[in-house]
Amino acid sequence: xxxxxxxxxxxxxxxxxxxxxxxxxxxxxxxxxxxxxxxxxxxxxxxxxxxxxxxxxxxxxxxxxxxxxxxxxxxxxxxxxxxxxxxxxxxxxxxxxxxxxxxxxxxxxxxxxxxxxxxxxxxxxxxxxxxxxxxxxxxxxxxxxxxxxxxxxxxxxx
Length: 158
Fold this sequence. Notes:
By secondary structure, this protein is mostly helical. The protein has six helices and no strands.
């Protein structure tokens, strides 16, 4: 067993030809979420960093990532402070790089970070089979018509 080494993603195993279905583990059920607006009372620099990083992390952002993203923004703003001692700067830079890797913002981490599937978004097979025509022929959910036999929708006669 290879202890201590980073695990490869399923897509990376498929590319290398080392994927084995009997060893595949289903990932946790991750619910996609929007990054949203910056938290209350951020500094001007934190707002600018938030707006710059938000589009980059949108594809992998889930409900549980909000706190880590807020921390990343605050630490990134603090990293630009020139009054930090060298040892504090080094430690802070490592933490910021680690958080950037978590969101796939570092080139070496992009292959290990898998995008979160959004509601109504086509999966890989649909994109491969239908390509650009997918958007043109995509069936959009229609509202359900009222059931004429349902008495609860009818006004009561008292």
